[in-house]
């Protein structure tokens, strides 16, 4: 495995996740979250470092798995990989939240859709970095 590409791709995927999370959870879903503010921890912002840490770990593992199975098939390979991992991660994550917490089903559906899109974009980012190998 090309260690330099691995770290560059992991960092790029982490940055992509962070930017998309700001857009999705800040701009798009922010108003919905405000309506549900009674469900969130009062000290939630103090714990955001945990989300950044887990996102970094996720980014490294996402790229590691991609690199181990990389076939050199271009952007479509990254898109397909991101779609499959996105489904895997978000079908459980989004819909189990609906079962556990009193969040509207519409929010869980949005989490699922936006989550799959995030992973697809990150799969394309990884494939663009690995395509020059």
Would you write up a description of this structure?
The chain is mainly α and 133 residues long. Helices cover 80% and strands 0% of the residues. The radius of gyration is 16 Å and the shape is elongated. The termini are close together.
Number of domains: 1
Query: Quick one: how many beta strands?
Result: 0
> Low-confidence runs (pLDDT<50, min 5 residues)?
none
Mean pLDDT, all residues:
94
| Percentage of residues in DSSP E strands | under 5%
Helix content estimate: over 70%
Given the helix and strand composition, which structural class is it? mainly alpha
* Separation of the first and last Cα atoms: 10 Å
Please describe the biggest sheet, giving its number of strands, its sense, and whether it closes into a barrel.
none
Helix and strand string, N-terminal first? HHHHH
Computed CA radius of gyration, to the nearest angstrom: 16 Å
- The geometry reads as elongated
Tally of contiguous helical segments = 5
Chart the SSEs and their pairings:
Layout lengths: L2 H26 L1 H6 L12 H22 L5 H26 L4 H26 L3
Helix pairs in contact: 1-3, 1-5, 3-5, 4-5
């Amino acid at each position: 495995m090309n260690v330099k590409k691995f770290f560059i791709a992991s960092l790029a995927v982490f940055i992509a996740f962070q930017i998309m999370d700001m857009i999705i959870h800040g701009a798009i879903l922010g108003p919905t979250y405000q309506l549900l503010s009674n469900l969130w921890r009062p000290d939630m912002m103090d714990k955001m470092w945990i989300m950044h840490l887990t996102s970094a770990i996720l980014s490294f593992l996402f790229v590691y798995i991609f690199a181990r199975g990389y076939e050199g098939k271009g952007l479509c390979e990254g898109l397909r990989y991101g779609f499959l991992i996105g489904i895997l991660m978000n079908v459980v994550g989004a819909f189990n939240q609906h079962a556990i917490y009193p969040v509207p089903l519409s929010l869980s559906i949005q989490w699922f859709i936006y989550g799959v899109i995030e992973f697809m974009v990150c799969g394309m980012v990884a494939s663009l970095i690995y395509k020059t190998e």
